[in-house]
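User: Fold this; tokens only.

Assistant: Input:
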Amino acid sequence: MNYKETIDYIHSAYWTGTKTGLTRTRELLSLLGNPERELRFVHVAGTNGKGSFCAMLSSILVCAGYRTGLYTSPYVNRFNERIAVNGLPIPDEDLAELLTRIRPVVEGMKEKPSEFELITCAAMEYYKEQKCDIVVLEVGMGGEWDSTNVITTPELSVITAMAYDHMQYLGNTMAEIAAAKAGIIKPGGTTLIYGENREAEAVFKKVCEEKHNTLVYSHPERIIEKDNTLQGYTFSYPGFDALHLPLLGPHQLHNAALVLRAVELLREKGWRIPKEAVQKGLKTVHWPARMELLHTQPTVLVDGGHNPQGAQAAASALKNLFPGKKIRFLMGVMADKDVETMVETLLPLGEMFYTVTPHNPRAMQAETLAQRLRDLGAKAKPEESLEKGIHAFLTEAGKEDILCAVGSLYLAGDVRRVVQEYYAGKLNF
């Protein structure tokens, strides 16, 4: 298969649907010779902040000299982003060759895997072949029944910030959601948690006790902010006088505290991570569509937060960066999210809302979202297409305006591409 054929194969209806259990993942990995058994992992679950944590930690590990795999989802611009080594997405030709080789194995299975199961197994094979020293492995959804959870006890299990999301799959209470996330806690290991939710914390503590797993907490109070600009944060942490983080929003300082605690724990386990690697890794980290600055004059940002906590993080970041100023929003959301709470969080900041329908079958229609905004007193303008919405969003703004695209990672990728092409003079609306 060539690259296009490979992507079509991955996304084909053949793989669609949600399938519970780890049987298919384990079977496929076994048929591939169990590549995961030759790898070492940091396994990361949680509701929000997983991607940012993984990006920061993998950047530090690369700077420490380790060949580092990074497995994340969903992608923002290209599928290949989901499988990376040393910060570089898997090349087109490598992905095509890998899936071409795996396809006959899959075709011989009685029960075919889901798309996520297929990609997880392919990633394990790729990381083995690339001789990765360590893999930062992000859970797709939940934890217990996520296909990444076929690994044995990792170097470290990490659970980031908790919130209500994917409730149709994970449960309606925080205890139920936490129990699903706690599925990544393995016997005899070490688990690091964000620790801001007492109900979730109680679940994690109980599971750790049952599995003789050591529970460790992050320490965000150890971070002392020194400077905050559109270029990011400068802050101190015990052992570091001046760390720079180019990611925006107060929540990223909390994520950084979690990362720095993870570094301490990995050092205790024998991983050599010098001070210089931590400094360089944080300074050079890039994680798209997380309150990402795309342009100035006007100021254009994009944030992929897609649930109430994500909306709150975006609102806090905007208030922090632009105190007292109103924002022009481009907003598109998935219909299965808690849209009302998201809207109510952003409403006080909004001068104008352009609503669009993201390119996803689960997306809420632009008119429906606009009406919900109007019902709450907002000025909202639905656009008939995502492209026309971005056009209005950019061209109706003055140089002093602040624009922010929010609501979904499925929206963020399109916004990043169009904005970059438009201001580079490569796109005429």
